[in-house]
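ok so for the tutorial part 2 we go from a plain amino acid sequence to predicted structure tokens. step 1 is just haveing the sequence, like this:
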Amino acid sequence: MAGVAEGSLGARIRRARLVPYQAVLGEREAGGGLVAVRLRDGRRPGVLPAEELLRRIGERADRRGPGLWDAA
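step 2 — the prediction. this is what the tokens look like for a chain of 72 residues:
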């Protein structure tokens, strides 16, 4: 019942915008080991392999830079 107490799906998505990255996993993504990425600033860089997403986020954290995502 914890899900009900947290609110609707839309409300949970709106609250999650406070985090730097959202990983969206649908049927297509899950079947192929992929993750659709959404950034706090509204950008949607696209779909990546899960390992690539984790590598990129780790590199950004190691640099401690203010940006969310590099273009390349």
